Amino acid sequence: MFDADQKSFRDLLMEIGRERIRDKAARWDREHEFPWEIHELLSEQGLYGLMIPEEYGGLGRSVVDFAIMLEALGASTADGAVMGALETSSLGAQPILLAGDEEQKKRWLPEVASGEALCAFSITEADTGSDAGSITSTAVREGDTYRIRARKVFCTLGSVARYITVFAKTSKDSGVRGISAFVVDTRDAPGFSVGRVEQKMGLRGNPTVELNFDDVVVPVENRLGEEGTGFATAMQTLAKGRVAVSADSVGVMEFCMRYAAEYARDRKQFGRPLSDLQAIQFKLADMAIKHETARQATFHAARVLDDPASSRTEIGHATAIAKAYSTDVRMEVVSEAIQVLGGYGYMEDHPLERIFRDSKIYQIFEGTNEIQRVIIGREVARAGASR
Ligand SMILES: Cc1cc2nc3c(=O)[nH]c(=O)nc-3n(C[C@H](O)[C@H](O)[C@H](O)COP(=O)(O)OP(=O)(O)OC[C@H]3O[C@@H](n4cnc5c(N)ncnc54)[C@H](O)[C@@H]3O)c2cc1C
Prior knowledge:
Bound molecules: flavin-adenine dinucleotide
Shape: globular
Helix content: 40-55%
Largest sheet: 4 strands, mixed
Structural class: alpha+beta
Order of helices and strands: HHHHHHEEEEEEEEHEEHHHH
Distance between the termini: 24 Å
Number of domains: 3
CATH superfamily of the largest domain: Butyryl-CoA Dehydrogenase, subunit A, domain 3
Strand order of the largest sheet: 1-4-5-8
Number of helices: 11
């Protein structure tokens, strides 16, 4: 599946995960702590800038390589804090890559690639989640500036990011074609403030917050692309985000499967290891089937994204299938892994309890799995058996 370079990249990340991250995951979760202590290492390895081209300070690697990174970290750590930080900052920077001009890329991307600045992505509002095209935030042009008025919710890393890609309406009457994207530098944005910090079921090492933009004035040079192109940029960004959460899920499934298998070999009931019981072997077999199928779907979607000849429809279809499937079966796999451990799996002494709490959100963000089915179903209905 991978070439020699990709295999050694995967091995390196597995080693970093096992030796530098895995043992800290429970504490970051328990103390709701962003993984700053590992931030320098991630930065040194260039992981925040993996997909950013070399001319802007990144490693210039492919979506497949990005998926390899997340899969390896998932398999070696199952830690949502580090993967969430890498996924979210990359998501925040994607609109700059996709729609920014040369000057904007040179201005912001090197800081993001080096890890000096984190990025966040903010489209969701209290009344518009799945229906992101109906946001009501506004950005009104005043000469060479825009005045942004927005109340955003659920912005991951919103309280630690230097740059926030925010989506607002520059035209109220044009539907999704009235949405534009802006970069807000939080160090220099009077009127910007962080509101409520959400208390979450899982992913507690990544803050998710409300953001207030009360007449934040940004120069025209902070608008990404032409007015009205923001929604298309957001959707293209989320396609990459969907592969990220799929790859993360594939890795986490591998972690859970191994954990359950090792436990089943050690634990004896009725005088023999649990792993000798066919009931337990069948659970492990079902985990393996789901894991392998999700892995194929994820790397297929990553390759579709890397292929410049892929159409938007192909990208939408492949990434939606990978996201919906991988994150649905992730929930099943972690639940069955806990079942293999019996009562011990329910306790905080084992990582599966944390992974179970972390996993639920993957079916919800980057477009809920119902919305992925809307995308898939619409395309199947259109193309029928000719696909
Ligand atoms: C922890 C966390 C982190 C997040 N991080 C970010 C972030 O960094 N940036 C950001 O912008 N947003 C972020 N979000 C927002 C996230 O993307 C939204 O929560 C998600 O898109 C769903 O929107 P909603 O919660 O408003 O649910 P709703 O849209 O209200 O949906 C509720 C239910 O109805 C279903 N539903 C809605 N419409 C349809 C339909 N047409 N057909 C079928 N079913 C439908 C949904 O699938 C869901 O089951 C985050 C959310 C959470 C919880």
